[in-house]
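WARN retry 2 of 3 for item q-0093 after timeout on previous attempt; input resubmitted unchanged.
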Amino acid sequence: MKKKALSLLLSTAMVASLAACGNETTPATTDTQTADNTTATEAPATEAPATTDAETPAAAEDFTLETLNIVVDGTLTATVENGQDAFKEQWEAAVSEKLGHQITLNINQLDHSDYSGTVSRLLTTGQPGDPDYPDALIMSATMLRQYQTTGLLWDMADAYANAEFQSRVTLPSVNENMKDNQGHLYGFAPTYGNGCVTYVKKSWLDAAGMSIDDIKTFDDYYAMLKAFHEKESGTYGVIAAGYGKLDEAPYINYMPEFWQGAYPSFYQKDGVWVDGFQEQATIDALARLAQGYADGVIDPDTEEAGTKQAREKFFSNDQSTSEGVFTYWAGTWLRTLTTNMEKQEVDNDLGDDRLVQLAPIQEIKDTWGGYINREAPVWVITDDQDGSNAREQAIFDALLETMLDGDKVQTLWTYGAEDVHWSTKAESFTTNADDPEKKKDYEYADGEFHLKQAPNDPNSVWKKNHLDPVLVIAPLTNGFVDNDELVQVGNKFFTENCVDAPAAASCDTLTENEATLVELKTTLMNQAVTGEITPEEAIAQYQAEVGDLAQQIVDELNAQ
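OK item q-0093 returned
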């Protein structure tokens, strides 16, 4: 049964990957984030094996974990090219000391662009104990919903409840809300999800005689986009990685002003599951997008752009074919986008004031209430289904328990390797030493925590590794804090202007057909936006082709 389920996961992941061709996974927490970070997959539901009252789960002490195989995406930024060996070496030393025996960490870092498809292939072609089979891996919230009924993932509810880090958890709802209706917990989120905010180029606002404080409604926003498009031939108001990212919850976060209260997926409305793609709000959103496309305020590259292409066009040194607005991840990315503009010599006279953040427009406040904070990416542990929890508990203790130890290991996951990515030793260095306009000196006293030059780019300062220290559910206790004021400004702005995303829908019929639905919805959305069909025709065609299937999914969700 497990192999059959995985075969379906693999086949539909490949379909979804083709449907999403050209789109890159979102950086999660982030670089992602990154990053989200997945295409839709599907599998028939099979009940995960439960521990009966007669069984006595073996303790982790009964299993010696000598090798830990993890599969990660680009949200682990300490890659092979920029210091992963040092991270791995220091992790092994610290965790071996905690466990009282030697442990080896094997990191399989997959390509972001087909992460879910490759995960499906790994799980299809192997089993626990094989050299390449993951003991633990990163999944998006959507992937978690799709895999948690297959029997492949270990229920870590008891391990989580009894973890040492529980005494320091400041955001318990992040993981409590991921439990199913029977109390099972198949994934662990060390951070909350983060979300996107709308960034606007200050120089473009100034040139248009506008202030960010004057942009309060969609009409104001649209007038700003039109002013930017008319700035000069070839410029556009806004670019995004797709008109809507229908294979990645929360679907609307890259163009929130156009989508407003629409949600083109299955979600709970007043306690009842509905198909948001069929709602009038989606028709209205598609009409707004179509008008923006027709008026030239939306960069037409949006249709095929991945996140990398979209952001690189936004901060390109050729601003004559660029855009004034870009909605992207909050916090760290305010610094990253600003730094990339600096590298491209865009608006250098404005320094760290190159970008301003747009508060949610009134139409967003009146519907969702703010920018959407997505469900967090998670770590999952594979279940060998041998009737014992010993192996799985040992993996939890080695990986997740130590990940939030508040000190040495958590610092590794947060900032990377000591004296490679960060240090507390006296140090001075200079970035862009050969460019008088960009040159910047850094000097730190002995004992002062600081980030170092990036190993693969001496003209950049390292940012973080996997955990965002601002988003983590159990903060560091050693006082190590990156004091980048711009990152702090970005995180504060988002947390003051966000609301939690709707919970991802999960039922057997949805899981089995999600790739097909995503492909059809994406095609119809693109056709409606570019004027091939009207928004009303798009929804009518959807209803004609899959209306009965959508109703079956809604009925199944409401019956749970």
